[in-house]
Amino acid sequence: MAKVVVGLSGGVDSSVAAYLLKEAGHEVIGMFMKNWHDTSVTISDECPWIDDSNDAMLVAESLGIPFQTIDLSDEYRKRIVDYMFAEYEAGRTPNPDVLCNREIKFDVFLKAAEQLGAEFVATGHYCQKDILETADGKVYRLLAGKDLNKDQSYFLCQVTQSQLAKALFPIGHLTKPEVRAIAAKMGLATAEKKDSQGLCFIGKVRLPEFLQQQLLPKKGSIIEISAKSDKYAEKTIEAGDLKELCAKINYEEKDGKKVGEHNGAHYYTIGQRKGLNVGGMAEGVYVIATDTITNTIFIGMGDTHPGLLRNGLFIPAGDVHWIRQDLKLEIGNQIDYMVRIRYRQTLVKATLYARQEGLYLVFEHPVKAVAAGQFAAWYSGDELIGSGVIG
């Protein structure tokens, strides 16, 4: 049996993870990550960190395991929050939860656990891992959780082999109802607690107010682009190169008509519908592009607008990450995988082309709302093979 530090978040999933590990005979320590001090942008009745910390402590007491809180707020600000601000300011859409797993839970937190003599860290993620024995040694595989409605493997798409080696996912083989049933049976304080929708170990955050701490409001134009714009000439691999096929469309104000104003292009993301305050349209309107240099938002009418669709995407070479280094695609080669570009998005078939400058992903069918800064992750069956930041 091993010494394991569990990241107790104050939710039901990590609570049951700790219970299962103790039942299996491991020496378990519960640890709560304090990642944020500023409560001015959290919603007080939606699981702020202090309530989560108290719930985590109650669970630890109930299970009879040691409990402590670790303050990682400085590292979280440097590695996650500053990154978020920089990405939004550049007109990109970051995923802080993916970064939190790579930079905080399985790096800073893992190192803190190792200082306590722990062999593993465990989380309440709905994902699984197994081990392949190869001629070159052990290879760790990251697999989808049994409950495909809750599968969180996407959020771990940036972890490394060395991080996976130290990770345990005790509830990955269970469904959410099964997890809640275990918590209820054991009388855990978190058994009926709602799932958090907030940032990793922070609580629910008002994103506009959060961004406005550093990104000041700035009036700009909202430009409507017609679905019949000549920007949407059909492209194929046969008719052009991969670079052209996978490139995002760049718009200018002259490409459409002004239909309103906004308070800052950096507050919006591709595919966004709410918060535009544009009336008088026959159908709903969606953000199809933003330009933070000119502070312009471009919108299209209807959820089938061609500006919402992309045939492919590009990941710069420095942003390509292979969990399975042994399956890394060599330059000049191509392979088919199933891909998703955001959590809970249905997997879509795509062909990956490895080139010197990076990785091109060409979808079998056009995909909606591809945004720079998001993570694209590719799967073989239920195994997550690699990922990258969309350029």
Task: Describe how the helices and strands are arranged.
Blueprint lengths: L2 E5 L4 H12 L3 E8 L14 H15 L3 E5 L1 H17 L6 H20 L4 E3 L4 E8 L2 E8 L16 H5 L1 E2 L7 H10 L21 H6 L7 E5 L17 H5 L10 E6 L22 E7 L4 E6 L7 E8 L3 E3 L11 E7 L7 E8 L2 E11 L6 E6 L2 E7 L2
What does this structure look like?
- The protein is an alpha/beta fold and 391 residues long.
- The protein has 3 domains: 3-212, HUPs (Rossmann fold); 220-303, no CATH class; 309-389, Beta Barrel (Elongation Factor Tu (Ef-tu), domain 3).
- It has helices at residues 12-23, 49-63, 73-89, 96-115, 161-165, 176-185, 207-212, 242-246, and strands at residues 3-7, 27-34, 67-71, 120-122, 127-134, 137-144, 167-168, 220-224, 257-262, 285-291, 296-301, 309-316, 320-322, 334-340, 348-355, 358-368, 375-380, 383-389.
- The strands form 3 sheets. Strands 5, 6, 12, 13, 14, 15, 16, 17 and 18 form a 9-stranded antiparallel beta sheet that branches. A 5-stranded parallel beta sheet has the order 3-2-1-4-7, with helices on both faces. Strands 9-8-11-10 form a 4-stranded mixed beta sheet, with no helix packed on it.
- A hairpin with a 7-residue loop joins strand 14 (334-340) and strand 15 (348-355).
- Helix 1 packs parallel to helix 2 (49-63).
Average pLDDT number: 92
Q: Return Rg in Å.
A: 22 Å
CATH architecture of the largest domain: 3-Layer(aba) Sandwich
CATH superfamily of the largest domain: HUPs
As a percent range, the share of strand residues is: 25-35%
Biggest pleated-sheet summary: 9 strands, antiparallel
CATH class of the largest domain: Alpha Beta
The overall number of domains is: 3
Low-pLDDT runs of 5+ residues are: none
Q: Would you tell me the structural class of the helices and strands?
A: alpha/beta
